[in-house]
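explain this:
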Amino acid sequence: MPRASRPLAEALARRALLLDGGLSNQLAAQGCDLSGDLWSGRVLAERPDQVAAAHTAYARAGAEVLITASYQVGYEAFAAHGHDRAATTALLHRSVHLAARAAEAADHEVWVAASVGPYGAVLADGSEYRGRYGLSVRELAAFHRPRIEALLAAGPDVLAVETVPDSDEAEALLAVLAETGAPAWLSYTVADGRTRAGQPLREAFALAAAPPEVIAVGVNCCDPVDVLPALEAAAGETAKPLVAYPNDGSVWDAGTRTWHTPETPVPWPTRAWSTTGARLIGGCCRIGPTRIADLARAVRGS
């Protein structure tokens, strides 16, 4: 079956769709070196075949939306490693093309979501889990604008504006989206009923209620126990489809660049997520193809 030809928003109006899982953990499982500040962006630059293989693994597991390897790709970060603007733009384009190739080879309908990671992701210091970078909304918009423009030029189906820790950054991203008119979902990373920067969730989700560019809103890269309260907060502010793709409950230690894993698996009440309005469900860090294949049954059942 060819890559999806209908808009993602149209499909979401009909049923829930299965997202893929964590790209970095799948690349690591394939033997890729993720050391250094560029993280998965380094693999995108040096081993695009491995990125393609990771996308294919998720498509074979049943994923209906593939998220590109552009999360950590930023002009400033890559310039520090010798990439000029043209080279970085080419990498952003490559990320979309690799996912599109895997989508076209799948045996089911697949959409391509171009990942727009937060400002903190390109700093490689864990600040995407803190927010409050000390930048103004205008400065954050100036950072995100060229990345978003480059990704859109490659023709994704939707933008995945993800792991946003701060409502100020969400405001900046929404301003850029309004300039483009491109469809996107907006997902915050949250903890204990607030954004990672400490803002009330209902206020954060309210920012995305009106903009027509935002076709879905929700959370990702958070503890599974934080998902349902966040979805309920989002549902209180908007009738748009909701998004949920947490990690496995592990906590990232930026100092040691390691994950601290919970002693026991954290339950995923996917039926409750669906009942609350989740229509895009998948996994983030440390959720691989096997878990996505298991999740496929729950999503299709919803």
Summary: The chain has one domain: 8-301.
